[in-house]
Amino acid sequence: MIDLSSLNENQREAVLWDKGPLLVLAGPGSGKTRVLTYRIARILEESGGQHFRILALTFTNKAAAEMRSRVEELIPGELGRVRLTTFHSYAAELLQQYGNHLDFRPDFQILSNDADREALLDDVLGQLRKDLAYSLPDHFKAAQLLPAITRLLEQCVPPDQVETLLQQLNVENAAPLARVYTAYRDALRRNNSLDFPSLIAESLDLLRKYPSLIKHIRKVFTHILVDEFQDTNHSQYQILSLIVQPDPSTLFVVADDDQIIYQWNGANPKRIQALRDDFGVSELQLPENYRCPPQVIELANALIERNLNRSAGKKPLKAVKHDDRDDVVRIYHFCSVDDEAEWIAQDISQRNKEERAKCAVLARTKKLLDLAGRKLEEAGVPLYFAARKDEFKSAPLRMLHAILRLANSREDKQSLARLSKAFYELEGISIELSPVLSRASADDKGLLRSWIDEVKYRNGLEERTQHLLEVDIKPLLNSLDYRDFADKLFEWAEAKQASTHPDENAFSSEFEEEREVWKILLAEITKKFEGDDVSLYQLLHELDLTSKTPPKPPEAVPCFTIHASKGMEFEHVYLMGMVEDQLPSWAAVKKGDNSLEMQEERRNCFVAITRAQESLTMTYSTQVFGWPKQPSRFLREMGIELEPTY
Length: 646
Known about the structure:
β6 (about 220-225), α11 and β7 form a beta-alpha-beta unit. The mean pLDDT is about 90. The radius of gyration is 27 Å and the shape is globular. The strands form four sheets. Strands 11, 12, 13, 14, 15, 16 and 17 form a seven-stranded mixed β-sheet that branches. Strands 3-2-6-7-1-8 form a six-stranded parallel β-sheet. It starts with 8 loop residues before the first helix and ends in a 9-residue tail after the last helix. The chain is α/β, with parallel strands linked by helices.
C-alpha cells in the first residue's frame, strides 16, 4: 500500500481525486512532481492485473526521466504500463504507429537542426524554379524563408488553406510563399522526414482525419495527465483536446498561470481558461511552498499579485520553511555591470568548495551570463552553461550517429557526408561521395554498404578498422542491432586515441564527455520503453528529440537564463541585471506597465527568485554595457529598499 502520510491535505486530495477532470494550480516548490508521481503510482496500485495504460505528458525529457524514476521507486515493476514522455516524443510515437495513413514509414528521419531543414528547403526552391509555369521571387532564399515556414507549421496550417490565410493577413508574395510551404511539406513526406514543428502538425492532421485512432488511443490510455500545462501552445492543446475525447473524466492537469514565460513559443494565459471552458474541470490549489525561505516568498507574492490576468481566487504562496537569518535576501547596487559581475564572481569564489557548487547565476539574457562566466573563470571558479546541444561534436560520436542514421535510412546523403568527414578525421582516409553514390545506384545496396565497400579497397586501412567495418558492423547491417556495434566502435575509437592519428582535434575533451552522455541517453530511452525492445528508428527519434548537453560537473557553478532555469532549484541564487530594459526587457518597457509583455516579464522575475532554496542575491548597476540604466521596477514592486552604490 502506497503511504500518503507525507503529503499535505491538498496534495493528498489531488492524488486521490476521482470526481472528473481536474486542474491543479500548483505554485513553485509546491510538490507538483510528487503529486503527479503519487497519483500515477496510486492508479497503478489500484488497477493491478488490468491492461490499460497511463499517458503522462510533460515538456522536458529531464522531467519525464525524473518522474519515471520516482514511479519505479513507489511501485516497482509497473513502469511498463506508463508512458511518461514529451509532447514531441508522443507525436513521434503516433506517427511511428499510424503515420502510414499519411504516407510516412515508421523509420522516418527527424531533421533536428536548421542546417538540414535549410538543405531540404533549398532543394524545394530549386525544383520549384524549374517549373516554368510559375515563378518565385528572386529574393526567396532558404535561410530567410525557413522562419515563415516554421511559423505556419507551428500553427498547423493545412496546405489547402495556407494561401487564403496569407492573403487575409496581407502577407507579401502570399501565393509563392504558399507554394513553397506546400512543396516543403510534400518534400518532407516524400523523403520520409519530419522536423520538430511538422511532428506536431502531422500528428494533429492524422488525428483530425482518422477519428477512429482517437478511440483506440483512449482504449489503451484510459488516464491522461499533463505536467506544466501552462507551457502548451495552440497545436499541442489541440492534440490534447482530441485524445481526451470522448470521455475527459480522467484528465488530470497541473499548471501555474504565474509561470507562463514561453509566450514567444505560443504559450498563452488564455489556454488555462480554454481548459475550463472546454472540459469543465474542477480545481484544486497547491499554495504551500516547500522550497523557498519565507523572506523570498514574501517578495514573490508582492511581485506577482500585480499581474492582472491571474486565475480568479489564486491564493498567495505560503512558506512552509522557517528561516530567521538576516542575510537570506541581499540587494547590491554597482556603478557598472563589469563591477557587478566581478563582485558576484568574488562572492561565490569566497565560499567553501561544497557551498560554491550549490550556487547558480541567473540572468534575463545570455549576454549578461557570458560576462558573469568570464568573471567566474578569472576567479578560478568552474562554470557550466546549459545550452541545448542538438548534435554530437566529437568525431567518434558523429561517426556512430551517422552510421546509425544510414542503417536506418538507406539514402541519407547528409549522413553519408557526415560519416565521411568524421572517418577522415579519425582514420586519415578521404572517401569521395560521388563513387559511393555511383556504387549505391549500380548495386542497390544502400549508401552505408556502398561506403563500406569503397573504404575496404583503400590502401593504408588499419587492420582493426577493417575488422570494425567487416565483422563488428554485421549485426547492425543484418538485424539493426545497434548496442553491440556502438560498444565496438567506442573500443575502436579508444585504440585510435591511444595511437597517432592525423587530426589532433578528432579526440577533443568532448569525446569522453559525449560517450557518457550516450550511455545516459541510452539508459533513459531504454527505461522509457520499459518492457519493449527499442528499435533503431525509435532510438534515433529519441536522440534527435533530446539535447546532448552533458550533465553539470559536481563542482561547477551553473549560469542559466531564467527560461533555462525553470523547473530547477538552487540553494543560493544570484539574479543579476535587475535593471530596466533587461528585466523587464526593453520591449516590455516600451509596451507599458500593464501590457501582456510586462506581465510575462514579471512572471520571469517571479520564476527566477523562486528557484532559491536558502538565499537570494539580486544585483543591479547604474551602467550596463555602456548605457545608463534605472533599477528594475520589480525591485520596487517587491517592496525592496535599495542599497547604496558599491
